[in-house]
Amino acid sequence: VQLVESGGGLVQAGDSLRLSCAASGLTFGSYWMYWVRQAPGKGLEWVSSINTGGDSSYYAESVAGRFTISRDNAKNTGYLQMNSLGPEDTAVYYCAADRTPIIKPAATDYDYWGQGTQVTVSS
């Protein structure tokens, strides 16, 4: 099983980025998908999650209204559209997949997780 994130980079405040999470080796549509992030010197922060069918999504208060999670089960890919980025969004972003809709304290607590992609927002 592999989850591979892409789309991170260095942007300026106010810019947008779209992260992708390509899944392989699992029945992607059977898993909830999560985006979590870890800023330097801080713990893991849940960002967003989406149910298996893609019709219910949830957001942390810090990103609600700016980020949009989505998925394309036919392509085994999940996405995180990030708009109006600010320096506080600087972090390594991980996608994770789990059979349950339960937010976990660590990336390794999810059934599967990726290697992460760096997002850096300059002010």
Features:
single chain, 123 residues, mainly beta, seven-stranded mixed beta sheet
What can you see in these coordinates?
It is built from no helices and eleven strands. The chain has strands spanning 2-6, 9-12, 17-24, 32-38, 44-50, 57-59, 67-72, 77-82, 91-98, 112-113, 117-122.
Overall form: globular
Main beta-sheet strand count, sense and barrel state: 7 strands, mixed
Number of helices: 0
- Provide the helix percentage: under 10%
Element order: H for helix, E for strand: EEEEEEEEEEE
The fraction of residues assigned to DSSP E strands is over 45%
Task: Summarize the model shown.
By secondary structure, the protein is mainly beta. The protein is 0% helix and 50% strand. Strands 2, 4, 5, 6, 9, 10 and 11 form a seven-stranded mixed β-sheet that branches. Strands 1-3-8-7 form a four-stranded antiparallel β-sheet, with no helix packed on it.
Topology:
Layout: E1 2-6, E2 9-12, E3 17-24, E4 32-38, E5 44-50, E6 57-59, E7 67-72, E8 77-82, E9 91-98, E10 112-113, E11 117-122
Parallel strand pairs: 2-11
Antiparallel strand pairs: 1-3, 3-8, 4-5, 4-9, 5-6, 7-8, 9-10, 9-11
